Amino acid sequence: MQPRERFIAALERRPITGLVPHFELVFFLTMEAFGKVHPSHRYYSQWGQMEEQERELHRHDMADIYIATAERYGHSAIFIHPNPDEVDETIRTIDIIREKTGDRYFIMRHGDATFSIPDGTQMFGFAERLADDPDGLKREAQQMVDAAIRRAERYAKHGGLDGFALCADYCFNTGPFLSPRHFAEFITPYLAQITKAYRELGFYVIKHTDGNIMPIIDQLVSTGPHALHSLDPQANVDIAEVKRRYGDQLCLIGNVNCAMLDTGTPEDIAESVRYALRSGMPGGGYIFSTSNCIYTGMPLASYEVMLDVWRREGVYA
Amino acid sequence: MPDLDLDQLYFAIVDGNAKAAAAVTQEAVAADVDPQLLLTDYMIPAMDEVGAKFEANECFVPELLISARAMKASMEVIRPLLLGKAVEPAGRVVVATVQGDLHDIGKNLVATMLEGGGFQIVDIGTDVSPDKLADAVATHQPQLIALSALLTTTLPSMKRMIDRLAADGLRGGVKVMIGGAPVTQDFADEIGADGYSDNAAGAVNLARQLMAAAA
User: Is residue B167 classed exposed, middle or buried when 0-12, 13-18 and 19+ CB atoms within 10 A define those classes?
Assistant: First the structure.
């Protein structure tokens, strides 16, 4: 089986043999690993001014980074972050990766269109709208969903894209930003709509959110994603508990503790990896990953420790 | 003031009803109720109640912010009256997100709650360098500093900031409280911070404790 097929099998909770599939939402340490600036860290202010030939060279350079990351670190999926983030550029990036690797990798991109936790400057305004203009907020939520579905229809028509990662963050370490009641009113219906539409277009859907999701996890699962990503132990999300409660409904992804990767010893990292594997793997439906991503500032050596344990112990009989 | 029920002010803030909070405050002021009493006996206790509910997961960030808006609406009414009364804030706090970290949600929440608790806030932003913090401390002479970090990778900045304050001779005059997703009490102890809170409401209680200890 190709990595892509194994990844899909895990998303569909079908049994597989060999290594449990692995990917990361982002691997930012491309300068350290490959001597290349990560595509998301590039500022193409003169993109439109470039000759097409030059743009194409940049596209290939970025695609090569994604492919090199997948090959070196054993990722089964490539999560592209098109830069510039436009539909046509996304399609061209997908085509380049497919030209170079065929159907070897599962390819996904961002696809969320629900309200995430607003940043500090927007937070007060959002709270005011929630209190003063709930209908307007719902209209905006619907417009965001409709626009995302229109874009997805273009991707579906073109082909090559396998799925979407829905990366709106809803939770702090202590719990959700919105109360479960507000979440049910302003997020869940729209998340369900977009997930259903993506699935009907033939895409796989991975829902990511940081933080303590337990107060809203029933709602998240009810929207019907193929997988739930992050399962952050720093927010006291216990993958064993999530597996027990929802393992028959969706695939689980993540749970390796990023704090351990940042500041822990190799033994700490190995312990977190083993817990994630031991809890997630039984019965299939698990994809190995950190509880966030390989972000800027994380020691690359720690990620390599994590992968060493995975290669030795993340194996289905 | 025969029909004036000041508890309505308390509940208007708890419920996040800014119009009612302002209206009751105006009625109270018109009836010559001491604005200092409104602040200390009704408004701040109301925000304390909201903070307690937040800590107990009985209310969430948007509700907390809407209560803060109601408190602010009430404050707008009494602020001009307090100006002539030499009312001291509960303390002056410089708040910042540390160098390398652009996240401002936690910082802003803590600032909002501290303000609701009667503290004067000097918000010096995100990605704040030790130099900028030292300048702010020298300029504003706060009793407290509240530092926030979301990223594990930016935690070392907290220690650098405390070290800079010590090197510049500014550490003795201020208490430093820290918070943020990766922060723990052990880390606070390790870097010599004076206190740690894992949430914005708890930060108000911590600030009061630190002020009391310094008195």
Answer: exposed
- Helix (H/G/I), strand (E/B), else coil: A225: coil
Contacts of B54 in chain A (CB under 8 A): none
Structural domains in chain B, CATH included, are 7-85 (1.10.1240.10), 92-214 (3.40.50.280)
A152 and A198 in contact (C-beta within 8 Å)?
yes
**Chain-chain contact of B60 with A178 (C-beta, under 8 angstroms):** yes
User: Given the DSSP bridges, would you call strands A286-287 and A251-254 parallel, antiparallel or unpaired?
Assistant: parallel
Burial of A317 (0-12, 13-18, 19+ CB in 10 A): exposed
Flag whether residue A124 sits within 8 Å of chain B, measured between CB atoms.
yes
User: CA nearest A212 in B: which residue?
Assistant: B181
Distance between CA atoms of B128 and A83, rounded to whole angstroms?
29
Structure tokens at A8: 């899909």
Question: Does A122 touch chain B if contact means CB atoms closer than 8 Å?
Answer: no
Owner of token pair 């082909």 = A159
**Plot region of A13 (φ>0 → left; ψ -120 to 50 → alpha; else → beta):** left
Phi then psi dihedrals of residue A316, to 5 deg: -80, 140
Q: Which of A127, A234, A295 sits opposite B62 (nearest CB)?
A: A127
Nearest to A288 by CA among A306, A302, A301: A306
| Residue A112 CA neighbour count, 13 Å, CB half | 18
- Beta strand A227-230 pairing with A163-166: unpaired
Sign of the CA dihedral with A94 first, then A99, A100, and A101 last: positive
ipTM topping 0.95: no
User: Is the four-CA dihedral A254, A274, A279, B187 of positive or negative sign?
Assistant: negative
| SS3 category, B90 | coil
Please report, in tens digits, the pLDDT of each residue of chain B (215 residues total): 457 899 999 999 999 999 999 999 999 999 999 988 998 899 999 999 998 998 888 999 999 999 999 998 998 899 888 776 767 788 999 999 999 988 888 898 899 889 888 999 999 999 999 999 999 999 999 999 999 998 888 889 999 999 999 999 999 999 999 999 889 999 999 999 999 998 888 999 999 999 998 87
From the list A120, A175, A258, the residue facing B104 with the nearest CB is: A120
d(CA A27, CA A55): 23
Q: How far apart, in whole angstroms, are the C-alpha atoms of residue B62 and residue A126?
A: 8
